[in-house]
Specification:
Elements lengths: L1 H23 L17 H13 L13 H14 L1 H6 L1 E5 L3 E6 L3 E11 L19 E2 L2 E3 L7 H16 L6 E8 L8 H11 L4 E12 L10 E8 L1 E10 L3 E2 L8 H14 L8 H10 L5 H8 L1 H15 L1 H7 L2 E8 L6 E2 L2 E10 L5 H12 L5 E8 L10 H13 L4 E7 L15 E8 L2 H5 L7 E3 H15 L3
């Protein structure tokens, strides 16, 4: 009996610790917003964005499909759209469609960098409700490819500078505006700019590129808007799986032909996902947003030492963004077999797109894939890829500047670090900075986010204006 009472007492103490930790896991003070107003000519900003969208700056891996005249026209339009910028800032075109502006500050010791890309992905015009390159403005919405990704931030950066230059503002430190025209196809424009900084011994204070946004309903149990600033991004690689055979007529199939063999490899990988890792960006996100969640989720995030298996189970079952934050993911995206329906393929292929958790790398991932497939007849090779980015710091004045600009532009949002699951040009800046922050200066609904790289991409006029406000607030701190 005493033994049972001891077990009960220990259990009560254990539960008490969990509940106390949950009750103490309360929201920390959010960034104190600057309540000053920012006034600018919103109509002019919208017309500039519409002009940029009309250029069909579509990039392809096969560059022969690109229309150079559209890219050239885009660049030639900039001096008339942003005359103050071209009068005050030096402009340096670099190879691979890279554009670099320098706005000199009072000090040249360090420089801030604000990035965007002006190329866009292809469109299937027949699936759009509005023409994708006419920038139709209707009911407070601009329709067009690139309105969100990322001509809005391109326009936001240069329009903010245009406004501040007109007002006579001079930044305390140099500011560079760095734009690439091939981000969507992993072009080398951003690398050229980083090389330029290295060759000219330019020290950076911080970098801001596309990434997170102000969003709702993206974190379990949190209803408030969240301003997510990426402090790292996952790596990426495409892996090819190939099986060969003698082929033959489909009327007399032999066992283990290429397609069933590949199917089994696919199923093995889906049934045995990569191990979950709680990396620094995700841990910081959980510690920030988890405190604003409902009691059950707060209990999980306050006691991850105990509930990590529960969280892992939730991630595996739900998939999607939460799962992508926790582990390296595998998505099978392409397959090819026989050219005829009645022929066993002499060779069949599949391709999976792998997004690498910061604690994994390409070599480790390839080793795990081969171990999981467990079939020497499946030839597995990396087609191309990149390792996860450097993780940026948050306990510094530079992070505080970006967070303040977010909190002041979108009042009431919870500012939080996070891990970006997509890839961006900013990964190249890890060579020269540990203060690279990924934030697309927009508030987006889930429906709007779904149009990025999809059909009917569009942006609310007020969203486009908010992007300019964000950059004005950020530049004033530089």
């Amino acid at each position: 009996m005493i033994y049972l009472w001891c077990i009960l007492a220990a259990l009560l103490v254990f539960l008490g610790i969990i509940i106390i930790r949950t009750l103490l896991f309360t929201p920390r003070a959010n960034v104190t917003a600057d309540n000053s107003t920012v006034d600018f000519d919103g109509d002019k900003i919208i017309e500039r964005l519409r002009t940029l969208v009309r250029f069909k700056t579509v990039s392809y891996k096969d560059h022969t499909l690109e229309d150079d005249s559209e890219f050239d026209g885009f660049i030639k339009s900039l001096p008339s759209l942003y005359p103050n910028v071209f009068e005050k800032c030096s402009f340096t075109p670099l190879p691979d469609r890279a554009l670099l502006f320098k706005w000199e500050g009072e000090s040249h010791e360090k420089a801030a960098v604000m990035m965007a890309h002006y190329d866009v992905v292809p469109v299937n015009e027949e699936n759009w409700d509005k023409p994708p390159f006419e920038a139709i403005l209707e009911n407070g919405v601009i329709w067009g490819r690139g309105t969100l990704d990322t001509k809005v931030t391109f326009n936001g950066v240069l329009s903010a500078a245009e406004h501040l230059i007109e007002k006579g503002f001079t930044p305390k430190e140099d500011i560079y505006f760095a734009f690439s025209g091939g981000e969507e196809v992993n072009g080398k424009g951003a690398e050229r700019i980083v090389d330029y900084f290295l060759q000219n011994n330019i020290t950076l204070s911080f970098v801001v590129d596309e990434g997170g946004a102000v969003v709702k309903n993206v974190f379990p149990g949190v209803k408030a808007a969240c301003g997510l600033i990426g402090i790292a991004e996952k790596g990426m690689m495409d892996v090819e799986y190939k099986v060969k055979s003698p082929g033959g007529h489909a009327s007399a199939p032999k066992p283990h032909s290429p397609i069933p063999t590949l199917s089994k490899a696919c199923c093995n990988l889906e049934a045995h996902p990569f191990k979950a890792h709680l990396t620094a960006p995700v841990a910081k996100m959980f510690d920030t947003l988890g405190r604003h969640s409902t009691f059950v989720f707060r209990m999980i995030f306050a006691n991850l030492w105990l509930f990590s298996p529960v969280l892992d189970m939730i991630c595996k079952k739900s998939g999607g963004e939460l799962n992508a934050l926790m582990r390296t993911t595998v998505a099978f995206t392409q397959s090819a077999g026989s050219k005829a329906s009645n022929v066993i393929p002499p060779e069949a292929k599949m391709v999976s797109n792998i997004r690498l958790n910061p604690q994994d790398n390409m070599d480790k991932a390839l080793s795990y894939i081969k171990k999981t497939v467990k079939n020497e007849n499946v030839e597995i090779n990396i087609l191309h890829g990149m390792n996860p980015s450097r993780i940026s710091v948050t306990d510094c004045p530079e992070w505080d500047k970006v967070a303040l600009a977010v909190a002041s532009t979108w009042k009431g949002c919870i500012v939080s670090p996070y891990l970006m699951v997509q890839c961006s040009d900013s990964r190249h800046y890890g060579r020269i900075s540990d203060k690279v922050y990924r934030f697309s200066a927009m508030d987006l609904t889930s429906e709007e986010r779904a149009t990025i790289h999809g059909n009917n991409e569009r942006i609310r006029v007020e969203t486009a204006k908010s992007a300019v406000e964000f950059y004005i607030r950020l530049m004033k701190q530089c």
